[in-house]
Structure formats: structure tokens, C-alpha cells
Q: What sequence folds into this?
């Protein structure tokens, strides 16, 4: 294995990339505009959750409850009649529908413990849980404040001072921005190495390489370093100028450490790209394989929904995916300011996954060349 | 062959079939055609001759209407070809066969299916197609192989199929771009016999041919000699010969060239090899055999080539020449026998051997993305030349192969002949001892070929390089020291060229060669024999050709279905693709439906309890006892809290202040501190909701304990009803959303590649030159993928209901109708992307980017669209997935029918014409 060959072949890959302007445009888009859009689209906490109120009481308490919902958490509540409620929820217009029963205030003051009904559209999983809690505490707060005027101090004066660490306002955009950088890294690195390899085969250039004094290992490493470098540069630019600069996401930890992690991630995903290319017979097959790989990597790595909530078996399977570790590592370093002493298990895991994927791909690659 | 019956005597009177006035064409900075004015006479066979890259192909593609006219005026068949209306009217009368073996054929489709596809494009009905195809196959001698995939045919056969495709609609103008380049002499002869035959039958047909073979040009009626984007001369071959006073067309052409181009050109004469009596063999093959499955590509081949010899390898296409060469280079390992280079057996893993060999493969296989200099430099370095000698070596090569002027050009912009010279320069950069060249001069013009052979001669005679070369050109074969004739994997004869001619007592090497081949084939059904009767039959039946009528329908379902059927066939030939699409998506649905869950359980928390009383422990217990939280070891101090939160161990940390129990009892205000890990906001929100809820419950409980009945005043309950999914079951919530996701990603990817692939591999030209409209093309491409996606939809729904037990409570018909509209938009998005992207890599990346991100993030699968902001909200509102998610959730979980969901159908209905309209607008019906 000669280093010079690896460098030369890698430089060739880079030059080739520079000749596809459309691809360059897409790469720039993926690491700038796409990240920006995704980050700013993410609702902050509960944003504009659609709520409707059926006010059958029409009392001071009920109107007090009504006015307690306002943007940005909730939309201005729609006052609807009871028979409208079902239809509106069916067509997905409202996520929450609060039904204040007749004589609510009277029963409340008479100590009859009336019941307010809160309907939640459970198909909207994200808002269903956190939003349900919010609605409950807002209603409770309003009712008890109202009651304070009518009775002595019969409540327990314990306050809960809730603070979020690392992201005080729970701005999803921060997380969304990083998460999208991560998924662009994965997507691009797999596509670049995999599709480039298939193109070489379709155009017959791979055969040409084989009559030269270079080994498959050299070819593969050259693809990995060059394409990895492109993605690394793109992600650095994206993180520094878009995420930190434009989106003003505060980064707690060391960027250097994060990029060290990115290098390991790229090692694993570029190897994966080559692996996919060796099993796909043609570009359309590769395209499908890519979709079938990217989707679980994106959705199940813990970036989109929390890992804890996945069934144990999925959590275990996803431990084999580089993205899972990379998401954990990125969150720890970028948000919680963790150092290597904290994230070393993820580094180790990425390294192991990378080495295994590389060895496996190299084996497949040699057969592919035969 | 005989000239066309109506010969050249009346061509001056009739209106020209094509007439060019001051035509210019540029590709970027390269000027392909410069101020060309030309009238091409009708009804005869016109040849375009000239070196590579002088604009022959560009001229033909302009006449065929495949390329847009940039400058000047091109009139074809009595109208301006730049005028879309005229192009639409005339294109059924024109047939165009682009350059490259089988370039416009579909490799996985059979011979019959390929021709049938063209028949459909020209709107012929089944009977007519069947009759014409039978006739064409019979005449071309392809009748025995109607079911063979085009990709598996030899070069000569591919060209015959291409000709059948071109002739299926009885064109008035047949345009052939180097139809016989890379085709062996026997097939070449058959090809021209076929053309003569057809012309005999349709005397009015005009034929325009570009060719690099001068001996072919001699049989044409009228010639156009071109150089450097200009017309040098026109006239009959006899006129050209008499004008230049040359003995043959080769010489005549050279004489027509401007002075500076002619310089340095002289006929190649290779000095005889000095007989040193050497016994060292550079290349030896001993009983080499290569089998692919049960097909024997090379059968027991042996030869010995001494050092410094030029050894020629001849044979029909697909006879095993390339395979033999690959075995010598170590690219393929022989099934039997041994191949030796310099006495050492070829070992594919031996890197050192590769340094001694220079190999040039048949297809251009250098990097088209690197410049000439970069290609040379890369290979010099890969062959490990000392870095300080590289610039000199490159300069030396550039001088030797006359590449100096184009060192910084990209290979794609260069004419074939120059690219071949570059390939040779690359193969020689490391001064190898052996050169293995696979048809190095295929498609190279005569002048360049002479230059090429001069170089080979110098290498062999001066540097002692052994050269092993395959060729289809007989004049090149004559230059070799020895040649071998190969057929069907076997070597027929090995001798000096002179010896071979003498053995067969033939007039020329070509004749000897054909005699050998015909003997080997054993006179099996020569294609000519059944022809006469066939023709009579055909004449009777064809009499009024139905196809090229003047009226052209704006939308012809038959043309559209031609593409549909072709696409469907290709899908069927690639079962892996369909299987991947269907099985893969079912697996994915399961994994994702099962995996996404917003209900967070088993969150880790720990307490820093500074009070440690019954009341504080009661508070902690309230949280620890819920199914949502799992308590970890108590926190010792703030440092411990910091550390455990920053490594992600704790999602929630509580601090209970000292004197908590006492203060609660006394009714004094007190505050509990709680920290949530906000790194993952959606999880943090859920945690916050849980904690607040539990806090409230605890307070109510405590109040009742402390104040008894007084506390019941003002008590009320909130009854939480999770609708549509009472168990808040993840699978039930997610499966209806995953179906839209999968039906977006997979159909769009398949659709985009179906078009971009044709662009990258060249068959898109069929769309340019046949009467099919853009709309028919798009729709035709779309249909099979819509059908596949609907099959996918049915599978997914069935699996969701039967295997995963997700109830479908609403109307299946509504869901199916929405799915149909939705997959039309999904494939429509793919086709829209394909209309402006031309490389498959960019297409794959672009599609992944444009479908995956919006579908996952902006279409309400996870966050409702109503709460999105900025650009994302806008994308969510126009993205079709949003509406299908609503419909899928409505029909699956909410028991809704069409009336309830009608509003969500409208955006889908709007999206379809918008997407199709944009695709039609962006898609080009001609090459730019």
C-alpha cells in the first residue's frame, strides 16, 4: 500500500467532483439552506398548537380559561359548539378540544368536583403528550387563581421551579439544526462514495484502474478520504457559518472534538456507501438501497425522536448504526459541553463500527472487482 | 456494390432533402460547426467524410432534429427544422441512428422488443408491427434471435438491430452516424448489402451516412468532405478523385486538407523486424480457456509472441479477443491453461507485472472529469515514476502524441481520434515493455490512424516494445508482423498477413478473412437466400405505407404506451428492483412504525434531597413510582449533578431544599428545583409535562391530607381523552404516517432514475428524434411506476392491517383513491427533478434531499404542519405528503370517509397538473 497512490487517486476523485456543478449546488443546498429551513421550521416547544374550546358554561371561570391560551404556545382558541367538535377533530383542524361542561363554575364552588373534558388527537404524537400536560397545568392554574379570591389558603404552597439545562428555552431549532447537519453528513457521504463507485463501473473506468500497479485497498481508502474530506469541509462550514453564525445556536463544547467524531463517523458511512455500491447491481438499485438505509438511520438514530422511547430491540439494533452514536456524541459535545472523558464510549463505538464496515466493504470490493 | 438506380444524374434538379445555410454550432467554447452552407441532394446515398471531431455528428444531429439549431438555418424535407411544428410533422419521415454500438437500444430488452418499441413510437398497430418486424428480422438475418437481449449481441448485430429500429417506419430520410465503426468486416459487408437492398426497394429514400472508412465512402453517390467544422468539398467520389488527382479516396481526402493539416503526413511503412534470432517470448498463451457459466468465450487458445513483435488480433465482434486480452493483463483469471508474460505466469495479484504492461481497453476508460494533463500526471504517479522526471515524461508524451495544444482540455470535448491518442499516451506513460491495445483505432480517422501506427512502428522497432493489438481495419492488419484470426473463441489461423492471403489465394486480406469466417460459420443460412420471396410479399402488403401521415395527433396513447411498456419490461427484467421496492418498504414500515414513539418511558432521574424527611421522600416516591421515571442513585452535591447531567446519565434532576417537610406542614412557601436535560427538546418537553402533572397531583393529595374537606371546594378534574388511539399505541399512530413516507421516497427515486439513466447512457436520443411528445414521454414513463407504487400501497396496507393489527376504520376506497393521486405526485416529483438533472449521482442525492427531508419533517408526520414556521411551514403546506398523511390518518384511525376528507384531495389534484406541466416545460425535446 503506497501513500502516494492513495493521495493521487483521492485528488482525482476531488477533481471529478468539481466537474459536476449540479452536484455542487446540491451539496451547498444540503448544508446551508436546507439546514436553515429545517432549523427555523421547527416549532419552539409547543408552537401554535391548534386548540378549540366548547364553552357550555359561559361563566367568569370559563372565560378566564379561554383567555389563558394564546400564542406562541397555542393558537387563539376557536370557540366552537359541541357538535362541531367531532367534525373538527376528525378533519384534523384541532389537536386539542377542551369541553367546559354547563354549570362548571357553580359546581366548582359547591365542591362538587366537576370534570372538564380534554380531547387530544393522539395521532399527533409529539403534541399529544407535552401539550396535554400544558393544557392541564394552564387550566389548573387559572382555576386556582380564580378560587384564591373565594377561599382561604387551602393550597399547598410548593412551587416547582423547572429549568432546562443546555437549552433553556427548549428551542427545537438548535437540535434540529445539528440533527440536520448530521443527516446531511450521512446522506452525502454514502451517496458520494457509493454512486461514484457505480458510475466508475458503468463507465468502465474501474477496470482501467485494475491494470495499474495499485491495490483495491488503495482505491478504497482514496475514495474514503477524498469524499470524507468534502463532507467534513461542508459540515464545518455549515456548523460554523450557518449553525453558529446565522442561527446563533450556542455551542458549548469543543468543535475540534466534534470534528474528530465526524471523521470517525465519515469513516464508517463512506465504507457503508462502498458496501452498498458493491451489492447494488445498477444505479436504480443503489438508489433504492440508499433510501432503505437512510430512512431508518435518520428516523431511528435518536435524532428525530428520543431513543428511550423506542422498543428495546430497536434500540439494540440501532447500536450497530454509526448515526446512533454520532447523535449521542454530537448532543453531548455541542450542547452539554462534554469532553472526551464523557464521550469516549461513542468514539470507541464509532471506531469499531467503522473498522468492521471497512473490512467488510473491502472484502466485498475485492469480489466486486473480479 | 451497385449504386442506387436513380444515381447522381437527376440530383441536381430535385429540391434538396436537406439544406443548410450559414449554420454554426458551439459546445461551450468549442466550435463544432462554423458557417456551414450545404445542399444535400435527395434520393441518393450521401457520405460525410472527414477526421474525427470535425462536426460530422453535430451536422447529422442537427438535420435529424436531435439537437437545437444555434445559428443559421437548417431546412429538412422542405421546412425549417428549428420550427417545432415542422419538426413534429417531419420527424415520422426521418430515421436517425446515433453513433456508438447499440447506443439507442435498451440492453435488457430483446431484439424483438427493441424494434417493437420503435414501431409503437411511430403509432403502428400490432399487426403492422408484427409484419414489419418479421420482415426486417428475416432480411437482417436476425430472425433466429428475436428473444436475445440487445446487450448480449455482438457489435455487428447491435448495429443491425439499430438499423431495423430506424427502418420500421419506412423513413424518407435515413441518417446513419458511423454505423459500421467497430464492426468487423463480414458484418460490415452484410450491413451495406442490407442498405443497398432496402434502397433498391424504396428508391425515393435519401440516406446520409457519416463514416470513417474511406473504402465505404467509395460506394456512396455523393460525398461531403469536412474538416474543422467546415465543408472542404462536395461531389461524387469520381469528381473528388479527378479534382485531386489521387488514386484513392484516402489520398484524395488528404489532398483536400489545408496545407498545415497535411504536413507530416505520409504513408506508414514499418521496416521489417530485424531477425536477431531471439527466442525470448514476451507473451505466451498455452491452451488458455475462459468460460462464463456454460458459455465458452475463449476456447483453448495458444500463441507465442517474441519481444518487439507487432502481433495483430482479428475477428468478428464478440469472438473472444477482448477476453483474451483481459486474461493477459490479469484482469480475468483463465479457467484453464496459462498465460505468461516474459516467462512468468500472469498473477492478478502481482503488482510488479502491471508495471511492465500498458493496456488500452476498447472503450475510452480514462477520467473524463480530468484534463489531458491531469490524466497523464495521475497515471505517471500511479506507476510510481520518480516525481522529478514526471514533467519531462509528460512533455515527451505530449510531443510524441501531438497533444501539446490540448493539454488542458477535458477528454469529453475532444474528438475520438485524439482521445484514442491520449489513451495510448496514458498506456505508455511508464514505458512498458508490452502494450496490449484493444481496438485502439476504432472510430479514428485515416490521418490520425496513420499517425498512430507510425508511433507503434517506432516503439516496436526502436524501443523493442512488444505490441499486441486488435483491429477491424485490414490495412492495419497488413502492417502487423503476424496476425491471428479468431472466431467464436477459437483461433482459426496465425500467420503473416501475406501468408494468410496466399493460403486462401485471395486478392486481399479482407477477402481472405471473410473466406475464413464464412468457412468457420459453415455457410449457415446466409441472410441473402430467403430475401427475394420475402420482398415480393412485403411489396404487396406494404404498398401504401400507413405510418407517416401528415396529420399528427397531439396525444397518441399508443406512443405513450410504448414508453410504458418499455419501462415495464425493463422493470420485469430487473426483479431485484421491484422486490427491493416492495419488500424493503414493508420491512421499513415495521421498523419505523414500531420504532417511533413519542411516549417516553424509563427516563432516568435522581434527587438531591437536602431535607430527607417523610414528606420529601413521599414527593420523590410519587415520581419514582410512575412508569415514566426510573430513579438512579441519589445526587451527592452540585458537582455530581453537573457531571451526571452533562454525560446524559440523568434526564431529570430534582433538588429538595432543607426544611422542605417543615415548611410544607406550616404552609410556608417553598420551592423545589428541577433541571431537565434540554439537549433533546422534544424529550425535555415530555419530561416537563410529566413532572408538572405529577407535581399537581401531589399538591392536590397533600391539600386533602392537610386541610381535609375545605380543600374539596374548587376541586375539579380534567378528563383526558386520547382520541383515535386510546392506548396511545405507537404503531397505530405511526403506520398511517409511514405509508405516505415510503410511497414518496421509493416511487420518486425510481422515476427520477428512469429518465436520468437514459440521459446518461444515451438512449434519450430516441425521445428526441421520434414523434413522441414530451407529455406522452412523461406519462408513459410514469405509468409503470405508478402501478408498482400502487402494488406497494396494497402490500403496505395489507401488512398494516393483517400483520401489525392496525385497524383500518375508515373507507378503504377513499384511501386507495388518495394513494393513487399521491403516487402520481410522488413519481411526478421524481420526473420533475429528472427534467433538469443529467447525472445519476446528482439525481440520487437531489431526490434524497427533496423527498426525505420534507416528507419526514414538514408533512405532519412528527410535528403538525400547523405549528411549523418559516420556509418549513410553506413547504409543508404545498408538499403533497402533508395531505396524504391527513387522509391516511383519517381513514386508518378516525373512521372517516370521502366526504370528510374531500378538502385534502384538492391539493393533490392541483399538484398533479402543476408537476406535469412544470416537467413538460423543463424537459427538452432536443439536445441543447
A:
Amino acid at each position: 500500500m503506497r501513500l502516494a497512490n492513495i493521495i493521487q487517486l483521492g485528488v482525482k476523485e476531488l477533481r471529478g467532483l468539481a466537474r459536476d456543478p449540479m452536484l455542487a449546488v446540491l451539496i451547498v443546498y444540503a448544508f446551508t439552506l436546507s439546514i436553515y429551513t429545517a432549523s427555523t421550521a421547527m416549532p419552539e416547544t409547543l408552537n401554535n398548537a391548534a386548540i378549540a374550546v366548547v364553552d357550555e358554561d359561559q361563566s367568569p371561570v370559563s372565560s378566564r380559561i379561554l383567555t389563558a391560551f394564546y400564542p406562541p404556545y397555542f393558537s387563539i382558541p376557536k370557540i366552537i359548539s359541541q357538535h362541531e367538535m367531532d367534525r373538527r377533530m376528525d378533519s384534523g383542524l384541532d389537536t386539542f378540544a377542551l369541553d367546559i361542561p354547563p354549570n362548571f363554575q357553580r359546581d366548582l364552588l359547591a365542591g362538587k368536583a366537576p370534570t372538564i373534558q380534554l380531547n387530544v388527537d393522539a395521532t399527533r404524537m409529539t403534541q399529544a403528550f407535552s401539550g396535554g400536560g400544558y393544557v392541564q397545568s394552564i387550566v389548573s392554574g387559572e382555576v386556582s387563581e380564580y378560587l384564591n379570591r373565594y377561599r382561604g389558603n387551602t393550597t399547598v404552597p410548593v412551587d416547582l421551579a423547572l429549568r432546562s439545562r443546555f437549552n433553556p428555552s427548549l428551542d427545537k431549532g438548535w437540535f434540529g439544526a445539528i440533527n440536520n447537519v448530521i443527516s446531511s453528513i450521512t446522506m452525502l457521504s454514502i451517496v458520494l462514495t457509493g454512486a461514484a463507485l457505480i458510475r466508475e463501473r458503468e463507465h468502465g473506468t474501474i477496470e482501467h484502474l485494475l491494470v495499474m500497479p495499485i491495490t483495491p485497498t488503495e482505491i478504497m481508502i482514496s475514495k474514503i478520504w477524498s469524499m470524507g474530506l468534502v463532507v467534513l469541509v461542508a459540515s464545518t462550514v455549515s456548523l460554523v457559518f450557518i449553525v453558529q453564525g446565522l442561527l446563533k445556536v450556542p455551542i458549548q463544547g469543543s468543535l475540534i472534538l466534534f470534528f474528530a467524531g465526524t471523521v470517525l463517523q465519515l469513516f464508517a458511512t463512506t465504507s457503508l456507501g462502498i458496501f452498498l455500491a458493491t451489492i447494488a447491481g445498477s444505479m436504480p438499485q443503489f438508489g433504492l438501497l440508499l433510501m432503505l438505509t437512510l430512512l431508518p438511520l435518520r428516523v431511528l438514530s435518536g435524532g428525530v425522536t428520543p431513543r428511550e422511547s423506542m422498543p428495546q430491540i430497536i434500540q439494540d439494533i440501532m447500536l450497530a448504526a454509526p448515526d446512533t452514536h454520532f447523535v449521542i456524541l454530537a448532543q453531548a459535545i455541542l450542547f452539554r459541553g462534554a469532553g472526551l472523558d464523557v464521550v469516549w464510549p461513542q468514539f470507541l463505538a464509532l471506531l469499531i463500527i467503522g473498522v468492521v464496515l471497512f473490512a467488510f466493504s473491502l472484502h466485498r470490493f475485492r469480489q466486486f472487482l473480479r | 456494390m451497385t449504386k442506387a438506380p436513380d444515381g447522381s444524374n437527376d440530383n441536381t434538379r430535385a429540391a434538396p432533402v436537406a439544406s443548410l445555410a450559414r449554420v454554426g454550432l458551439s459546445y461551450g467554447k468549442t466550435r463544432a460547426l462554423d458557417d456551414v452552407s450545404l445542399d444535400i441532394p435527395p434520393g441518393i446515398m450521401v457520405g460525410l467524410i472527414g477526421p474525427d471531431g470535425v462536426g460530422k455528428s453535430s451536422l447529422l444531429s442537427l438535420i435529424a432534429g436531435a439537437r437545437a439549431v444555434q445559428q443559421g438555418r437548417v431546412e429538412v424535407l422542405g421546412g425549417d427544422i428549428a420550427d417545432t411544428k415542422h419538426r413534429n410533422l417531419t420527424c415520422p419521415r426521418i430515421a436517425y441512428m446515433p453513433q456508438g454500438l447499440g447506443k439507442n437500444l435498451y440492453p435488457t430488452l430483446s431484439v424483438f422488443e427493441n424494434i417493437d418499441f420503435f414501431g409503437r413510437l411511430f403509432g403502428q398497430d400490432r399487426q403492422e408491427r408484427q409484419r414489419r418486424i418479421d420482415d426486417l428480422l428475416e432480411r437482417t438475418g436476425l430472425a433466429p434471435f428475436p428473444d436475445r437481449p440487445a446487450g448480449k449481441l455482438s457489435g455487428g448485430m447491435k448495429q443491425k438491430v439499430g438499423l431495423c429500429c430506424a427502418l420500421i417506419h419506412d423513413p424518407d430520410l435515413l441518417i446513419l452516424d458511423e454505423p459500421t465503426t467497430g464492426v468487423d468486416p463480414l458484418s460490415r459487408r452484410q450491413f451495406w448489402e442490407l442498405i443497398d437492398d432496402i434502397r433498391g426497394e424504396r428508391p425515393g429514400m435519401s440516406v446520409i451516412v457519416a463514416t470513417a472508412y474511406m473504402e465505404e465512402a467509395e460506394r456512396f453517390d455523393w460525398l461531403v468532405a469536412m474538416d474543422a467544422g467546415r465543408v472542404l468539398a462536395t461531389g461524387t467520389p469520381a469528381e473528388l478523385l479527378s479534382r485531386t488527382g489521387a488514386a484513392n479516396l484516402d489520398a484524395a481526402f488528404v489532398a483536400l486538407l489545408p496545407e498545415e493539416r497535411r504536413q507530416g503526413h505520409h504513408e506508414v511503412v514499418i521496416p521489417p523486424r530485424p531477425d536477431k534470432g531471439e527466442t525470448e517470448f514476451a507473451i505466451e498463451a498455452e491452451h488458455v480457456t475462459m468460460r462464463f457459466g456454460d458459455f465458452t468465450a475463449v476456447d483453448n487458445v495458444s500463441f507465442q509472441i517474441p519481444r518487439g513483435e507487432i502481433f495483430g488480433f482479428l475477428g468478428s465482434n464478440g469472438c473472444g479477443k477482448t477476453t483474451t486480452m483481459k486474461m493477459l493483463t490479469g484482469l480475468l483469471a483463465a479457467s484453464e491453461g496459462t498465460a505468461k508474460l516474459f516467462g512468468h505466469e500472469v498473477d492478478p495479484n502481482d503488482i510488479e507485472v502491471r508495471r511492465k504492461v500498458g493496456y488500452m481497453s476498447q472503450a475510452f476508460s480514462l477520467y473524463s472529469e480530468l484534463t489531458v494533463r491531469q490524466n497523464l500526471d495521475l497515471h505517471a504517479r500511479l506507476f510510481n515514476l520518480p516525481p522529478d522526471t514526471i514533467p519531462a515524461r509528460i512533455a515527451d508524451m505530449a510531443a510524441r502524441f501531438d497533444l501539446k495544444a490540448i493539454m488542458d482540455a477535458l477528454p469529453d470535448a475532444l474528438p475520438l481520434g485524439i482521445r484514442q491518442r491520449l489513451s495510448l499516451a496514458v498506456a505508455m506513460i511508464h514505458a512498458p515493455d508490452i502494450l496490449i491495445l484493444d481496438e485502439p483505432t476504432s472510430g479514428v480517422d485515416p490521418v490520425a490512424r496513420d499517425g498512430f501506427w507510425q508511433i507503434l512502428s517506432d516503439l516496436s522497432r526502436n524501443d523493442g516494445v512488444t505490441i499486441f493489438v486488435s483491429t477491424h481495419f485490414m490495412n492495419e492488419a497488413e502492417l502487423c508482423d503476424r496476425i491471428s484470426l479468431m472466431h467464436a473463441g477459437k483461433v482459426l489461423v496465425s500467420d503473416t498477413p501475406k501468408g494468410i492471403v496466399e493460403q486462401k489465394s485471395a486478392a486481399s486480406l479482407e477477402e481472405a478473412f471473410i473466406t475464413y469466417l464464412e468457412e468457420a460459420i459453415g455457410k449457415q443460412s446466409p441472410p441473402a437466400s430467403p430475401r427475394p420471396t420475402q420482398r415480393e410479399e412485403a411489396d404487396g402488403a406494404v404498398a401504401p405505407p400507413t405510418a407517416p401521415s401528415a396529420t399528427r395527433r397531439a396525444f397518441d396513447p399508443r406512443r405513450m404506451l410504448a414508453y410504458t411498456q418499455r419501462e415495464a419490461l425493463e422493470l420485469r427484467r430487473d426483479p431485484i428492483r421491484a422486490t427491493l421496492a416492495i419488500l424493503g418498504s414493508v420491512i421499513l414500515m415495521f421498523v419505523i412504525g414500531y420504532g417511533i414513539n413519542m411516549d417516553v418511558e424509563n427516563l432516568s432521574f435522581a434527587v438531591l434531597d437536602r431535607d430527607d424527611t417523610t414528606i420529601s421522600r413521599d414527593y420523590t416516591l410519587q415520581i419514582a413510582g410512575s412508569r415514566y421515571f426510573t430513579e438512579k442513585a441519589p445526587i451527592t452535591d452540585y458537582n455530581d449533578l453537573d457531571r451526571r447531567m452533562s454525560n446524559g446519565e440523568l434526564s431529570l434532576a430534582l433538588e429538595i431544599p432543607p426544611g422542605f417537610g417543615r415548611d410544607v406542614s406550616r404552609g410556608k412557601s417553598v420551592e423545589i428545583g428541577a433541571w431537565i436535560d434540554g439537549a433533546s427538546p422534544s424529550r425535555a418537553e415530555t419530561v416537563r409535562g410529566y413532572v408538572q402533572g405529577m407535581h399537581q397531583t401531589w399538591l392536590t393529595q397533600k391539600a386533602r391530607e392537610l386541610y381535609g374537606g375545605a380543600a374539596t371546594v374548587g376541586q375539579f378534574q380534567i378528563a383526558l381523552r386520547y382520541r383515535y388511539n386510546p392506548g396511545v399505541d405507537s404503531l397505530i399512530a405511526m403506520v398511517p404516517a409511514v405509508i405516505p413516507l415510503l410511497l414518496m421516497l421509493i416511487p420518486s427515486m425510481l422515476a427520477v432514475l428512469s429518465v436520468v439513466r437514459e440521459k446518461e447512457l444515451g438512449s434519450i436520443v430516441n425521445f428526441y428524434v421520434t414523434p413522441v411528445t414530451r407529455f406522452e414521454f412523461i406519462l408513459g414513463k410514469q405509468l409503470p411506476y405508478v402501478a408498482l407504487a400502487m402494488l406497494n400501497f396494497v402490500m403496505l396496507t395489507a401488512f398494516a392491517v393483517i400483520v401489525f393489527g392496525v385497524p383500518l376504520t375508515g373507507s378503504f376506497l377513499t384511501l386507495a383513491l388518495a394513494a393513487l393521486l399521491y403516487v402520481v405526485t410522488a413519481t411526478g416529483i421524481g420526473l420533475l427533478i429528472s427534467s433538469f438533472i443529467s447525472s445519476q449521482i446528482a439525481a440520487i442525492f437531489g431526490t434524497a434531499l427533496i423527498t426525505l427531508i420534507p416528507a419526514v419533517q414538514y408533512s405532519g408526520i412528527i410535528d403538525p404542519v400547523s405549528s411549523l414556521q418559516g420556509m418549513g411551514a410553506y413547504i409543508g403546506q404545498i408538499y403533497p405528503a402533508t395531505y396524504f398523511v391527513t387522509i391516511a390518518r383519517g381513514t386508518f384511525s378516525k373512521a372517516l370517509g370521502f366526504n370528510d376528507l374531500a378538502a385534502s384531495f384538492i391539493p393533490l389534484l392541483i399538484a398533479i397538473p402543476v408537476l406535469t406541466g412544470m416537467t413538460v416545460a423543463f424537459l427538452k425535446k432536443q439536445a441543447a
Remarks:
- Chain B touches chain A through 162 residues (CB under 8 Å).
